[in-house]
Amino acid sequence: MEFNTQFYHLIDEALTEDIGDGDHSTLSCIPGNARGKAVLKIKQDGILAGVEVAEKIFQYKDPGSIFTILKKDGETMKAGEIAFEVEASIHTILQCERLVLNCMQRMSGIATLTRLYVDRLYGHKTKLLDTRKTTPNFRLLEKEAVKIGGGVNHRLGLYDMIMLKDNHIAYCGGIENAINEAWQYLQKKKLDLKIEIETRSLEDVQNVIAVGKGKVFRIMLDNFIPEKVAEALKLIGEDFETEASGGINLDNIADYAETGVDYVSVGALIHQARSLDLSLKAVII
Description:
Blueprint: H1 3-19, H2 24-27, E1 35-42, E2 46-47, H3 51-61, E3 66-69, E4 76-77, E5 82-89, H4 90-120, E6 127-129, H5 139-148, E7 162-164, H6 166-172, H7 175-189, E8 195-199, H8 202-212, E9 218-222, H9 226-236, E10 241-245, H10 253-258, E11 263-265, H11 268-271, E12 278-283
Parallel strand pairs: 6-11, 7-8, 8-9, 9-10, 10-11
Antiparallel strand pairs: 1-5, 1-12, 2-4, 3-5
């Protein structure tokens, strides 16, 4: 699904959840035609993410809003700085305030943590992937934050790649059956999807190599220690892309990169990230 379609659906649902039958706090004391200005204040150091999201939200709800970007997504931010200014209907500012902050605080936390991981990969060919370990209905922006932080999005969902994991393999009766069934499915359905398969041992890797050439594009090495990853890569050669996953953290990610593996995937980029402190403040002229 196209990004903007998903994004505006997310915004509509979030505002419906928050506003319900009316923002009575605002309705009770602010004239409907009043316009005003507000600024986004940064209260914590990190990597800024969600400025473009904030702009889309305000302009979606008030096409006449004037949004001035002072710091861009992906830039280092320091406490005390201003990220943007917005001039719009005061009703729009107040109704969108919490949504904008929730998005930006969460996204900035993810981008900041992602950047820490990316920095550990400096000088290596290995790229950093996210996972599907995301917040339901907020994956779109969490994965956008990973990109802003310098990471690479893995599949966006179950629909855009075939990923044969341990449970698929178990239910299917083994690696060979899983690969062949998936490949035949793609031919029958005429789907242009790539197949990745999880391995848990060097024996699994050898099985994939034996039956997967021309069918599988990437082999995941799940819960392999770096030394075992290096052994697996010698077996695999150049026939498949490679991904290390499981137990990878800031302390050991460089050890995995030293092996020359193509990708490392880290669920913690999203599910362990802490939101950063930001605030939207009215400017009284």
